[in-house]
Amino acid sequence: MIQLCKEDNGLWIVTINRPEKANSLTEAMLTELADIAESAGSAKVIIFTGAGKVFSAGADLDEARAGLATSPVWERLSSAVAQLPCLTIAALNGTLAGGANGLALACDLRIAVPTAKFFYPVMKLGFLPQPSDPKRMTALIGPSRTKLILMGGQKILADEALQFGLIDRVVEPDDLMSTARAIAGDTLAASTEIAQGIKSLCQ
User: Fold this and answer.
1) N or C: which end of the chain has fewer CB within 10 A?
2) How far is residue 137's CA from residue 128's CA, in Å, rounded to a whole number?
3) Is CATH 3.30.70.120 the right assignment for the domain spanning 2-201?
4) For residue 52, what pLDDT is reported?
5) Beta bridge partners of residue 54, listed in sequence order
């Protein structure tokens, strides 16, 4: 349910492929994503995307009830992505919900289709978010807007998410992957040392 495509130029494309379940994430899927991120030393750019019309609905409901909602695997994944020296892009093909926000927040860039919605209803469900998620969200959009999402339970539409700074660009569905590839182009063409050096200077 996780597809990995490695191209000769150093581009890795990771696709969450469980559209019949809105790309909800099981522990096995999260572990596979974390394994990919932790083994991506040769990648120059990684694009994370989803199959179908939803990027991810967050935790698989059955597994969430069994404890996945508070599993450390979420933090393992987001930490692995955040620590990558390569350029990471979340190409959000649709709505991003719950714990799946951690993956996108850990990426360097986020682009999304106009119909995407963003929400993280942890308080309503009675859970704390993973520790790094509020910190990364606050760094992007500030404390008040982070509380609007996490404490106010608000669903943010793509245009508002762009205005907030939660995402970096809104792209039509047919152009999503071509736009992500275009953004990746300069990094793929550059030497690894220069690309990693620029990323480190931006942190």
Assistant:
1) C
2) 14
3) no
4) 97
5) 95
Query: Pairing mode, if any, of strands 87-92 and 156-157?
Result: unpaired
Reading the block at residue 91, the tokens are 């190409």
Place of tokens 């933090």: 75
For the chain, what are the domain ranges? 2-201
Closest residue by Cα to residue 97 from 152, 173, 154, 142: 154
* Torsion angles phi and psi, residue 199, rounded to 5: -60, -45
Q: Which helix or strand (DSSP H or E) is residue 50 part of? A: strand 45-50
Q: Starting from the edge strand earliest in sequence, which strands make up the sheet with 95-97, in order?
A: 54-56, 95-97, 117-119, 156-157
The CA–CA distances, whole Å, from 145 to 95, 151, 169 equal: 18, 10, 18
CA torsion sign, 79 to 146 to 162 to 69? positive
Phi, psi of 64 (to 5 degrees): -60, -40
CA atoms within 13 A on the CB side of 162: 13
pLDDT in tens, the chain (203 residues): 999 999 999 999 999 999 999 999 999 999 999 999 999 989 999 999 999 999 999 999 899 888 998 899 999 999 999 999 999 999 999 999 999 999 999 999 999 999 999 999 988 888 889 999 999 999 999 999 999 999 999 999 999 999 999 999 999 999 999 999 999 999 999 999 999 999 999 98
